[in-house]
Amino acid sequence: MSARPLYVKVFDLYLNSSIHVGIATSALVQMTYYFAAIPSDLTVLLFIFSGTVFSYNVIKYAPYISKKGLPTLSLKIISILTVFAALSASYTFVFLNTAAKTGIAVIGLLCLFYLIPIAKNKSNLRNLAGIKIYIVSFCWAAVTLIIPLLNADIAISNDIFYKFLQRFILTLILILIFEINDLKYDDIRLRTVPQTIGVPKTKSLIYFLLLAFYGLEFLKIGYYEYQWFINLILISITGVFTFFANAQQSKYYTLFWVESLPIVWYLLVLLLGNK
User: Fold this and answer.
1) What is residue 240's three-state secondary structure?
2) Which runs of E-coded beta strand occur in 8-133?
3) Where is the domain boundary, 103, 130, 156?
4) 200 lies in which domain range?
């Protein structure tokens, strides 16, 4: 078997080190600043990007490294990047206001329970059947929407509540597509949605959630020209990804393409959005 080209190894490292998911999270933060009509806060952006990279890598690799150490060069590089991400997140955290720090502490506790056993049978929230997708969706919505607004001293209004629901639903949709793609890997005891109701019904659920995501836009008081069209493009693209999702797709289908949807949403706003 021939060795993989260098560019493939670099691209895999980019994905496996959670840098791509960090950029996707940052794109949603930028969406928050756009909708709130306030300047981007680089401190918040750097904190959320670094915190995402750190938390995702710890959740993914800490159990493996604790058992087997660092057997590969890529894991060593990821570990170094994770340490730098932790230092960056710690440094920028100091400059956030009290409200944002409090919100982050609550989300941090959820992440901690997600990783550390909380019961005698050594279960954690990640392993409790059915709860994982809601924890991750809540954390993404809270981190990318609520934390930037808290740090900017902006009150939580009805519009923000609807935006929170949109972020929650969008993240839930992305996770469901991931679960369809990961059917061949997931332990049956996880009882993921595709394992429980099957792939066709999971896709039907995603289509319903896409309609709910789109409908929430029309409940907002604030008006953003072309946002109805931008969101229509987004749910159309997501619907196509859902249609072609299956357990035989490569890892790049979700780890890169599906994970890129928040970035696509922000790029659409930059290209077409006009308040």
Assistant:
1) helix
2) none
3) 156
4) 157-275
